[in-house]
Structure formats: structure tokens, C-alpha cells
## 1
Amino acid sequence: MSGPDAPDPLDAVQQDPWAVWLGGRIRRPLDLPQYRRAAVLVALTREPDPRVLLTVRSADLPTHKGQIAFPGGSMEPGETPVQAALREADEEVGLAPHLPEVLGELDDVFTPIGFHVTPVLARVPAQLHLTPTAEVAQILLPTLAELRALTVTSEIRTLPDGTSVTLYRYPWQGHDIWGMTARIVHDLLTRGPM
């Protein structure tokens, strides 16, 4: 259907509770010029109980072996966080860059080993056909309800520069979601719209 009475495809995005939530909050960027810039894709499926796309990193990688992560990685020169997150998701799990509806950026996070990461929130179709590459040992798709039902543990750590950060752990089906990934998950679960 086309013409003046056709529904505007942006109407669905504007009514999406995640888009509304994201539009109503103030994003907290970081200013860490000495850190390496990176981006991750926080992809939520379009269904009543959204699933979140996570990966188990390969044991053959030089860093973060076997850890649970969002698809993502270092930004290339001239790339925006959105471009980097979409490129990395395509490279790691075969998520075609045209599929995610990017809603915006979440609060920046950092890792103790020197990465400044921008999480990019997007919605993706409920039925995904993903193909992990050698970087990814497994694809995980827990629902937000499953993650909310977990007994989360937390601890305060002080970084070498004196900054205190709260670290979270989400034990899900034999997997340990922790570190930067758990901080982003915690933000979604505690500050998100549902």
C-alpha cells in the first residue's frame, strides 16, 4: 500500500517502547581520549518478550576468550559507533546491516583494559538467521524476562585511578554474564521501559 493513506514506517519505531525510553533519557557519554574506541550492538528482537543477542567469544581469540559479549569491536578510522556496531554484527554473526532498526546510543561504558565502548540499541526481527564466524563459539538469545528472573550478584571495585564501579554477574543457563556486558544488561533491565 502506498500513497497518502499508507502508514509511515517510522510510526512503528516511534511507538516502540524502547524508542520512547531511549528518547526520554539523557545519554551519558564518556571523555576518555586515552582509551581505544569501540562499539557494540545491543539487538533486541521484536516480540512481546524481547530476546537480546549475545555471543560466546571463541577460545581462540587473543582477548576476552570464552566471555559473553554483544557483537562489536574496535571502531575503524572515520566510523561512527552505529557504523562500527552494524559492521561488527555482520562480521561476527552474519546479521545483515539493513536488518537492525537503530534506535540510538546507550550510555558509554569502559573496560579496565582500556576500551571506551558505545552501546548501540537496535530492534531486529524475531526470526533471525544468524551464522557465527570463527570469532564466535555460540550465539545466545535469552529473553529479558529470563534475565530479570536471575539472582544477580554485584560488587564494588576500585580502579587504579580511584574510580569506583559496580560489577554485576548474571548466571544464565550455565553461562556467566559479567563485566561490561553485564553492566549494559543491568542498564536495560533496571532502567528500560518494561
## 2
Amino acid sequence: MLSSVLLCCVLLVLGGPVLAQDVPPYTEDCRSETYPPSGPTFKGNVQLYTINLDQPPYERWQKLISEKKAPLMVLIQHIKNIAKSIFPELIDIVDRKLPFLIGTLPFPFGEEIKGVADAAGLPLGEIMLFNIFYEVFSVCTSVVAQDSSGKLLHARNLDFGLFLGWDVKNSSWMVTELLKPLVANLNFQQNNKTVFMSTSFAGYIGMLTGMKPSVLTLTMNERFSLDGGYIGILEWILGRRQGMWMGFLTRSVLENATSYDEAKTLLSKTEMLAPAYFILGGNTSGEACVITRSRTSSLNFWEMDTQKGEWFVLETNYDHWKPPLFIDNRRDSANKCMNKKGQKNISFATIYDVLSTKPVLNKLTTYTTLMSISENKFESYLRDCPHPCMPW
């Protein structure tokens, strides 16, 4: 059912009655020597900003938003235009209704969103809408691998913007391109010490990618489901607020969890607004798993098992025990390249090669992040996938 809906949406977006078997694969052999990043798939480095948790929540994002105000306003206007084309009254509802619900958000998220809105000079409801989008529109690839010495490496491509406007002239997703100037590396500090690092988008206060030094690494991928994030958000607006926003949960774990096991428990048992995959890495050999979540419960734990030769776990946006959507098989390409590289050769360089191979790299890819607990390394790069390249 969901596959058919997604396929119909894809064909409508791309503007033609294209049969699935006629869609070009845009695949390639596993790439090599792409790191350090350069060439046409590398769009630039990601700037680092400090978020001071000792400051009042309202003030924490001021510097970042003041520097990213112009591209944030352009993106919000584009989202508004899309919303108006679908439901002309939506933005009026957003501007009038959503601000009244700001007080229902757990501390400190409501105050932070107020600070972002004021710093950007944008209506509070529109910044709320901007944050809601991440609950339902991200499409990603995440992997945690263990090298032959027992060290863990965690990496991801963040893909975003599916169905949010296809630019025929430039063969790109409009929101994907508008997001790239908003990508920032964030160093969350308290008492002048790093609490956690994250790659995020200016204006979004939840977290999708992060590393807590010496403790854990964490990424979140969207999980497609008919009981999806839009249902949870609607329930929250209507007054049922037992669930936690997905990005808020991820951020809370990065900020507060003191161990891999504690993080695993929180990510497994907390009721959420949206289903998700949490890809979690620890600080000890063998500590890596994919947690498959519905909105209310855990459906599956998939843990690394090096005793059985399973030296990496890799997740895209489909339950790992089921086949992926036939027009979106990033998983097999990524698995093939990981196995071709091999455990003895795995490193930032070779994982970056995997994440640079089409269709793992695609028109939706905004950034690639590489994380290593053992070496305390955190790197992010803006990405591009020149034509010809898979739209998703």
C-alpha cells in the first residue's frame, strides 16, 4: 500500500506516466579515493558554531540565526508557497494556531523556538512548522562499522526534501538545495566543556546526527509507515501529547544519556510522535545497533555481532528484514560497497567512498557526517550529486 502511494507521488512529482522499469538506475561501481572530499560531489565544508547551554534557552541560537537569517527566510517562504498550493488556508492556520501550542513543548524547546523566531524575524508559527517538517520528510543512510582493531566508526548521509518541489531546469529538489546553506556543525557546551556535537540545520532545534564524546554516536532515519509522523503531529495539535518529538528525543539522549545502554533504553521505550530508525553506536567494541520504532514501541533490535562476522549495521529507510522499495534500493548498493571495502580497510576514507557511490549519494543528499568516538573526530561535508543522478 505504502509503496504504491510513494510510487504514484514520485511519478506525479516528476511529471510523467513513467513505468518503474523505465526509471534509469543511476548506479555505479563502488567509488574510491573520494576522501579527503573534493571534486563535483563535494559542495563545501560545514562551519562550526557553539551553542552555550549555560545561556537562557531564548538566547542560545542568536549568533547562528543572525548569520543564517537570509537563507532561512528563503526556505521558509518556499515551504509556505508549497503549503499554499496544497491548502491555501494552511499558513493562516499555522500563524494563528501553532503559537498557542508553544507552551505544550517540553522545556527548553519552546523557549528556544521563540528565540529562533525572534532572531530570524519570522512568525513563531512558521518556525514551528519548519521544525515539524523534520518529523516527516527525512530520507537517509546510516552505518556503524567496527574496524579490525575494534574501533567503531559511525557515518551518515542526510537526505531531505523528497516531494517538496522538483526543479526541472536544474534537475534538483528545491528544498534540498535551499537547506544546504543552513547546514551547521554545532558544539553544545556547558561550563566551557563539550556536551555533544551535532550536524543540523539552522532553525531546527531537534537533532538528527550527533556524537557525545567518549560515550555514544547517534543518527536518526525516517521510517515510512501509514501510522506516521503526520498522525502523531495531528494528535499533538488536538491535545494528545504523550508522545515526544523525534528530534527532541534524539537531542535529549545526546545531552543527557551517560552510557550506550541508557541511550538504548530511552530510544526504545519513549513514546514518540513519529516512527523512526535509531542507529546507535557506543564506545566499546560491539556496541552498535539499529532500533526499529513505531510511534509507541520498539519493533526490532538489530545488534552488531562480530562473532558471526557482522562487523557493521547499515540502515536506510526500510525495515532491514524486508526488501526495500524497488525504486529506492540504496541499501544493497551500500552493503555491497561496505563488504567490498572489507573490515580490514574500513576508515573514514572508505566509508566516505561508500556514501559517495550512487545511488547512496543522490539528489536528496545534503550532507555527509563521519564520527569516531575512539579518535574524538567529527567531520561533516556538504554534498552534491551532479546529473545524471538518482532523484532519491
